[in-house]
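Notebook entry, structure prediction.
Reason for the run: the old model in the group folder had no record of what sequence produced it. Starting over properly, with the input documented here first.
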Amino acid sequence: MNGKLGNSLLLWQNHPCVVIGRHQNPWLECDISYLERNKIPIARRKSGGGAVYHDLGNLNCTFYTSRKEYDRPKNLKLICSAVQDMWPDLDIYPTDRDDIEMFGYKVSGTASKLDREHAYHHLTLLVNADLLNMSMALKNKINIESKSTKSIRSQVTNLTCSMAPSLNMESIIDCISRKVSPQSKVEIIDPNEVEGVKYEREKIKSWNWIYGFSPAFTIVKDFNTSLGLHHLTIKVVKGKISDFKLLHKEINYPFLNEILIGSDFRPDVIEQTLEKFIGHELCELIIGYITGSYDDL
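New structure, fully documented this time:
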């Protein structure tokens, strides 16, 4: 963060993507196989908090201030007040967890980051997002043991409803902008022209940042094949396999650990190795589990 922006409110949008918090585990927070099939990217932000889904029906609001002026409750109240000024029938309010709810349903999640001099507080605002896609994207199918920050699941809804027929993305942006200051200067920014954005974009798109930054975790699973019961244990540290054990009462696979240790925890890497040594059936089951393809494995 730097001080070039001054006190600013940035309103911005993304094409469909899932954004996880700094200390989260993407394998635990979302259905990676679903995201890959639907070409929905994952991003890891530098602030904490839980996983969120973005699309063009969601508005992101970032309050950029000095550390001294950082004030989450004030920002949340401003958003709620802006909406109610325009649509007084909407029962919208901040919660004790610094979320925003409407009629008991969550419409906004929040996170922040502070350094020595500056701070930013950002939040989502569900205007008319694709809630089905959100539900599918944020559905975890893998049993993982991890100390990573886990998202708190909530029932969500969009701001658009029969009680506010004129509410849409354009009107929301307009009412928030006017609430900040009737005389405020609204400036359209091309992110490609902002200093440092291209460098940061490449950095946060890297596999090491999105996956490798995840806290250590362990996958444990028992499953049956035509050869009988197998026990699988995979330990992953910094996105790389640190231990891989596949046990069977009559068959030993000690060489798999030697081959896979140090490899990225990527299904394609694991699959290429397993296919060579343990056959298609067992390989398919293991890959199906670690990608979430098999719900009942």
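Summary: The chain has two domains: 8-210, 217-290.
The old model has been moved to the deprecated folder.
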